[in-house]
Write a structure and sequence with these properties.
This protein is an alpha/beta fold. It folds into three domains: 199 residues, P-loop containing nucleotide triphosphate hydrolases (Rossmann fold, 3-Layer(aba) Sandwich); 132 residues, no CATH class; 99 residues, Helicase, Ruva Protein, domain 3. Strand 6 and strand 7 form a beta hairpin. Helix 5 packs across helix 10 and helix 16 packs across helix 17. The longest helix is centred in the N-terminal third of the chain and has 38 residues. Bound molecules: adenosine-5'-triphosphate and magnesium ion. Adenosine-5'-triphosphate binds next to helix 4.
Amino acid sequence: MIKDEEELTPAQIVDELDKYIIGQEKAKRSVAIAMRNRFRRKKLPEELRDEVAPKNIIMIGPTGVGKTEIARRLSNIAGAPFVKVEATKYTEIGYVGRDVESMIRDLTNIAVNDVKKEMSDEVESIAKERAEEDLLDILLPPVAFPRKAEIGNVAKDSVSSEATGADERRKKTRERFREMLKKGELEDKVVEVEVKQPKTQVLGMFAGMGLEEMDQNLSNMFGSVFPEKKKRKKVTVKEARKILEEEERDKLIDMDKAVKIAIERVEQSGIVFLDEIDKIAQKGSTHGPDVSREGVQRDILPIVEGATVSTKYGAVRTHHILFIAAGAFHMSKPSDLIPELQGRFPIRVELKSLTTEDLEKILTQPKNALVTQYSALLETEGLKLEFAPEAIAEIAEIATHVNSQTENIGARRLYTIMELMLEDVSFSAPELKGQTIPITVGYVREKLKTVLENKDLSKYIL
Ligand SMILES: Nc1ncnc2c1ncn2[C@@H]1O[C@H](COP(=O)(O)OP(=O)(O)OP(=O)(O)O)[C@@H](O)[C@H]1O
Ligand SMILES: [Mg+2]
């Protein structure tokens, strides 16, 4: 069900990324090519298709230059199951914590939900119609007509005509109710609905722990032991409609088919973004936390090389999942990773430190640029911020300066500077309604002066 014709070309992917990320052309190109390669592989004859392993990527670059941001944006345009995980989150198998296989389970869950969502969009209108009927049944419970045996010696004819008469009346009432429902006249009326209690909740109570980390087999076993529980609940018609629509949607979706499609997607085009990989790459001592770091690497290896992971939806083969790793590699180098893992990430791209010009652009150009964000936020208070171009250049200048004086945290510096600079307007905005505040170089310098003049202070505040 993956729509090949909608697959973006590398140039289009880069274009999309350009809307949010300034510079870092090489990284953008690499991820774009890797994504396109998946699409190319799918077109190969089967024998060859299985031979083509994904070219996994490591993005290397200082902190705050756009590594995670690229991943975040990529996930929106990937059109493929995508999960971003932090390498530091995992612990070696056998230790308390998340085992690395859970990243594949997360990816599968995401894919199943996506497919379910697509399928439920398709059945949306039918589900709505059925939910309306359900709601009418609740508002006007169907009465059981007396059965023939109980009617005794009353003439057959009269019964049936009486029944039809009542039937007619009920139908009319039902239609009246339908009208009222449609007009939204019953929204606040309280009705009683049966809601399914999620299995996990029932189980969670029983086991007293999160289900997620529980062994899959165990949860399946429990799942069949505990039947689905239903609970009666009083809710408004408005809420009831939501509940019933969801139930009807679930009934209409062929879950087996959804799971099959989802697993196929994960196996053929899934992408795992493995962030902070540098944090598990440390060589040297053979005791302490380092041992388990290498352990995590050893656990990750088979998954990257190609393994079969069991998920609650079935077995998932990881052989063709694309892995994009990223890390600052301040304290370690990619060569500190265990050799087998290095070999599995043949593509290395370096992200550059951001220049003052980059920072200047980051302030205004991305779709979610900080200047745009702050202006829009204050506009809700009837306040207009007017940034002079020189003022923006000044902010970028200051960010570069502070980055060089204290620690280089890249574009993240812009967040703290902007926040501090606009603190006063932010605070008094409601009283300044209707005004336009010109943000000039003078304004920027004035607001940041005290902090900038004191290096120790800037360490804490900026
Ligand atoms: N090149 C860039 N273009 C636009 N915005 C950027 C860029 N680099 C960083 N940013 C902004 O800075 C924030 C932090 O960047 P990001 O999360 O990508 O850092 P990172 O490279 O992953 O760093 P770390 O190694 O610390 O995880 C982002 O949310 C984004 O708003
Ligand atoms: Mg990051």
